[in-house]
Every structure is written in C-alpha cells, then in structure tokens.
Amino acid sequence: MRISQKNENCQRPSHHQPPSQTGPQAACSISLKFPKSARILSKNHYHGVMRAGKKLLGSALSIDYRLGKAACPKMGLSVSRRYGKAHKRNRFKRLAREAFRHCYQDFPSDLEINVAPRYPTQPISIEIFLNDFQQLIHKILLQSPLNT
Q1: Which residues, other chains included, contact 38 with Cβ-Cβ below 8 Å and sequence gap of 6+?
Q2: Nearest CA to 58 among 138, 142, 146?
C-alpha cells in the first residue's frame, strides 16, 4: 500500500501541463494511429461493403470495396481462424494497418475497403504486402468514377 506524502508534487514545475489530446477528435485526419474515424466497426457496415459486389484479388490478399458512402476513407479487417494462430492473424492485421497508413493520402475520400488474406497460413513479407496493397488500390483508383 502506498501512502502519499505531503510535498509529493513539489518537484513538478508549476508551468507543467499535461500533453494535449490529439487524434480521433479530428474527423478525417490520420497520423501514426488507426483511429475509429478510419475504421469499419459494425457488422452491418462490413456486410454493406461486401454486398457492394466489388472485389479485387491480389497475390496475398483480397479487397472488397465500396465508393460513395463514407465521409473519409475507412478500412475493415477480416481474418478468420483458418488463417492461422493468433500471432499470424495479428501480424496480418498489423501489416494491413501499416499499408493503409502508408497509402492513405492516395485514397478517394469516399472509399471503404475490407481487407482479408487470400490464402491461409501463407507467410507474407511487408514488401510483398505493401506492393500488393498498392497495386489493388491503384486498380480501385482507375475504376473510380472520378477517372472515367
């Protein structure tokens, strides 16, 4: 048990302020985080993106996508247990979030994507994943109504 002392905080400077809260408060900004504003969260939202009927297949992953419904780019992740144990599924999710942050500036503002692995238990390097992700996003950009 800890007992507080009388002058415990006297070493802290009087002008000390806690760090400012930045992050999900900004509607569509993204930094090194993956804020809630950039996520697909609900079951209905996932189904809406999958029902849109637009799917692209890469060598290591597949992307379901929809244009025209969101205010800012959003991404969802679907990795089933067939892919492997938890550490493999978590690694895939980390790679997908990193690729999303890396390519975020190139996305149309109304893009929603759902990323899933194509083959179970296939080890993927970051280079292969990023290359595949960028190629699929490039195909989406070519198919978007802004480019036609």
Answers
A1: 28, 30, 72, 73, 74, 75, 100, 104
A2: 138
- Return the structure tokens found at 130: 């990023």
Sorted by sequence, the CB contacts under 8 Å of residue 31 that are 6+ apart come out as: 22, 23
Helix locations, 57-116, DSSP H? 86-103
- Domains defined along the chain, listed by start: 38-142 (3.30.230.10)
Do the bridges between strand 61-67 and strand 54-57 make them parallel or antiparallel, or are there none, so unpaired? antiparallel
Beta strands 74-77 and 111-117: pairing type? parallel
Judged by phi (left if over 0) then psi (alpha if -120 to 50, else beta), residue 104 lies in alpha
pLDDT 10s digits, 60-97: 899 999 988 788 889 999 999 998 899 999 999 999 99
105: its two tokens: 């500036």
Structure tokens at 39: 């996520």
CA atoms of 146 and 148, how far apart (whole Å): 6
Tokens of 68: 């025209």
Which 8-state DSSP code applies to residue 76? E
Length reported for the chain: 148
